[in-house]
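Section 4.2 – Deliverable D4.2 (structural model, holo form)

The reporting period included a commitment to supply a predicted holo structure for the target in complex with fe (ii) ion. Inputs used:
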Amino acid sequence: MEVVGYADQFSVAPGETVRFHVSCKQPTYQADIVRLIHGDPNPKGPGFKEELVATPVSGEYPGRRQDIHTGSHIIVPDVPLLGLHDGFTLHAWIYPTTPQKGVQGILTKWSEAEGGYGLVLDEGGVLAVWLTDPAGRTEQVRINTPLRSLDWYFVAATFDAHSGQIAVYQEPLRTWPQDQTRATATATTQLQATPTTPVDCVMAGLWQTGDDGESRIGRHFNGKIDRPGVFRRALSRDELLSLQRGASPLAFGDDLVAAWDFSAEVASDTVIDTSPHGLHGRAINMPARAMTGYNWSGAETDFRNTPHEYGAIHFHDDDLEDAGWQVDFSWTLPAECRSGVYAARLRTEGGEDHIPFFIRPPRGQATADIAFLAPTNSYLAYANEQLTTLPPALFPNRKQGELAPDDHYIRENRLLSLYDSHADGSGVCYSSRLRPIVNMRPRYHMRALNCPHQLPADLHLIDWLEAKGHAYDVITDEDLHAEGLDLLAPYKVIITGSHPEYWSGPMLDALETYLNTGGRLMYLGGNGFYWITSFAPGRPHVVEVRRRVGTRSWHAKPGEYHHSTTGEPGGLWRDRGRTPQRLVGVGFTTQGFDNSAPYERKPDGFDPRAAFIFEGIGDKEAIGDFESLVLNYGAAGFELDRAEHSLGTPAHALVLASSSGHSDSYQHVIEEVLLSDSQQGGTVNPKVRADMVYFEYPQGGAVFSASSIAWDGALSHNQYENTVSRITDNVLRRFAAEGPLSE
Ligand SMILES: [Fe+2]
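Output (structure tokens):
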């Protein structure tokens, strides 16, 4: 991409400042603030619409390249104690996942420019110790037997500066007959002392000098590290054996330099040293925490109950929390400012980018009766998704041909979503907004489906609100998590996005209370309220999901279902009793990727309580039986929800209409299939459908659920005059009006 960037926040209130971080290959670029209305260039719809906003931002800016550097690691600030002049022991348990990928730092105080010391996985997947002496001479001692991937090893390196003895040990946790990987390498060196390289100690990487001359950490380790530690002398083989068998490093008294306990403070980026020296470190780029250690017994699956069995951190060379770019320009919003979906529009020769953000109403106020709840958690979950781990045959509409520049940018920079897996095959459980999210853009068409999804699809709704003249505020998941009911309470109606899938507990609490105290919700999407999602304490830019059971693109490893950021069990809300059916009457039942289908009115749709919903719609008229901007045709498609009393749909809920006629691209969701069989496709399974549902909550509250991601893509058909638009408008006008819902 010629120009690309990100904002320092998603949601900004009038009077506050939003900052933009930009990378541009060209010497200059033009920046403007625009209000986004319709992002979909599909000629079957109303086309791209944005509105230039007059702000001091408008102008030309110097371009500069800012790069992405992925890879998680730990940094421990340098102290004289880490000089280790008389020798050392470096040790850890490790579980390498890509031992053959090249040099990987395990526990190092080494820079490629100046040397130092370090325990590393060397070329060929072999364990090695590297050290240089003050004269710059380097010694490298390697074990010639490569480590197996996906196995735990106790590894150690010792150096005695007086005798010159160097030793490297690797001991597999599981041993087998003829096991070659239990090995030791020794050497005697002329080196007289450990060097005093003035760099910080690093775990899971080492210091490199980049092409730009900057020193940064590279050679990242893929896999788990557990209980790393440092001593200031060479421990004997027997002493190492006692450590390997679980002796406390603290028992070694004054010789101990550091003993890190990765099971402490897992919700944070702090890494605790349990030695008296307090050489605490910081985890950079969010490696996965609350991970099973070498000694996990399986007796507990909650790390909070047996922290000593959760002493591991899983590092990945493609982790990224914060791209850390410099700020290029900022905008302080005026005190009076219309709430909406906005973007910084960047234009340069050969390229354009939009950096979306949301202007919320002033804090503590509403400026409309209606609020669109932008599902920013879902935008984060899908951030830069490529679905490369799923079989291409699933997606008949998949974009063909060369990668577009934005897709190319994602792959080139190894940007990952919560739908992707890391290079070592483990699932991605954290996503951050402090990095370019190039699919959260107007104009973006999801590669797998060749149509808009998430933010670009939600602009179908924004455009419709504008076209129909409904005044609305925009609020976000992040706001709702932070502020709870107070954020929702002033609104008569909350409208969801097309796929509000990722909810934190506090968000659900707030919505439940809102509905029970007279609030009204239009759930204009599918597969909502699905994955347990948490925010990292003190890091509101990060969300966490642990995929387990459910329809999923990866699966958390045994014992790793609990979120490190909150401790709560992850997975589906339905498995914690908070089913979407209880909240909005419907829950995920099927997904498919070819076409959508129309809805047909059901007997409940003729109930007098629902009469207002169908005003202007013929009794036999199909709903959404026309071309759509999402999956080409029909209003019920992509991901669909179904009413299910056994899962909590209230008895008084009206199933107004249902879709039918879906192809076998649509399969009944796996969480409801107990035994594999061949009867789950749309042509044979009646549960493959969308149910449009309406029901009342106490005190005048109510829910209307469209139950389809494709619903909003049908709104603009025929100049917004169609059955989907009519029903949406009927519901919204009545929900936003004073007084009872039905006569
Ligand atoms: Fe989804």
